[in-house]
Specification:
Helix 10 packs antiparallel against helix 11. Strands 12, 13, 14, 15, 16, 17 and 18 form a seven-stranded mixed sheet that branches. A six-stranded antiparallel sheet has the order 2-1-6-5-4-3. It has a five-stranded antiparallel sheet with strand order 8-7-11-10-9. The protein has 514 residues and is α+β, with helices and mostly antiparallel strands. It is elongated. About 7% of the residues have low confidence. Strand 5 and strand 6 form a beta hairpin. Helices cover 42% and strands 25% of the residues.
Amino acid sequence: MDSLTHSTARHGAEDTERSIIQLLIEALPSAAIILDPQAKITALNLQAEMFLGWGATVLEGQSAHEILDCRAEDTTDSPVDCPISRVLNGGSVEPNGHMWVRCRDETFKQIEYRCVSYPTGKGLGAVLAFRDLTSELELERDLRRLASIAEESPIAIVELNEDANLIHANPAMMVLVQRFGFSCDARPAILPANIEKLTVQCLQTQSELDAIEVSVGENHYEWKLVPVTREKLVRGYGIDLTARKRAEIELAQARAKAEVASQAKSEFLANTSHELRSPIHVILGITDLLTKDGLNEGQLEYVKTVRSCAKSLRTIIDNILDMAALESGRIKVATTPFNFRAFMSKTAAPFLRRAEEKGLQLRVTISKKVPARVLCDRTRLRQLLQNLLSNAIKFTKRGEVAVEVDRGSILGCRSGVRETSDTKLSRGNAFYLFFAVRDTGIGIPREKQEVIFDRFSQADSSSSRSYEGTGLGLAISKQLVELMGGTIGVESKPGEGSRFWFSLPMEETPRAPK
């Protein structure tokens, strides 16, 4: 009976001791395992369970060496040489050592541990407290990687303290320091002259400062300053702009030379315009006389050919001179009031005969919404219509050429949408007038519609034009429309004709007094 009482008391004491130990290790801030003299696990806290991946019911009673496979990080010897074995054998280990632990998922994780002995009724046991170093090691690797990037970077990188003193420079920056030396205030000459002020601004606002240019001789750099979070440091990144700056300077010089050459060309053409036109007028005058001089049919045909060529040559010269005048800025918009319908009739008259000669019908339609009198540059408007009508008749072999004029509608716009409400400008009597010149000619391929208004571009790829001009007419039209504050475009399908349209701002004027 005494033996039974003694055994019961002993087991009760052991349970009490185990409960106290469990409470103590649960209160620890790190994972902890209690080991008996045979290195078997007798208790562990929740943090140890979560780290190892096994529950307490599985681990308790198991050998730590079989379950954990603990090895000191500086040895590959047998388990008897591990830190746990040393402590159980009465030895000692370093206060905060590192070792690897095998977890349930067969991964090995590095831990920082503290292993101390603790007496038990059966001999010397041990307490192993540890924490996971995985996150710290990954962060350390990332920091080393980032540091190596800075060291290997071809971009100059510096770190400055709050007084703008240099506390770190990568190899690329050190090369610049050796190359350019220091300024009078003992700071690298390649840094911005007001680096102190910029550093203070960067730290105070905690915002980046970029596009800070520095020039040392013929060398140019651009700096970006970035505040280092939670540190009174500013990190600077310097990019070499020397090659780009030199290219910009060379480009500016080339542009200046081109502008001078263009101005000289424009002035030359302007000054020689009379000399260029005079011989053509003489040729046209003589051909007029020859047609009235009783020539036979063959001779008359020759004279007509010469006259046609002379007119085409005159058109070419006029276009070249107009282009030169536009480029030099000598053409100005001069608005005057005029009778719009009379103007359109007079402008279309010369083209009626040309259309009849080719068997075409030319018609002009003006909406009733268009005012009787408008304020516009009639000279430039006439030039626009003449260019588009000439182009339409030139590329139309059969059918018709139509001129449509409307007010307050998107006439000929690419979307095909027609608006009926007036498009008002800032002034009460101002509006947009829309013109469309439509033909049933050869049409323009889609890929060429984007370049049709460029200089020397033709509407098709035909090479059969003997006297047809240089393709400047549409380029001049585009510049004239833009000069007058309008827009121009084209709609076309090969074989179905084209519609060239443009819109111009105008003002309605009262009728002239009788």
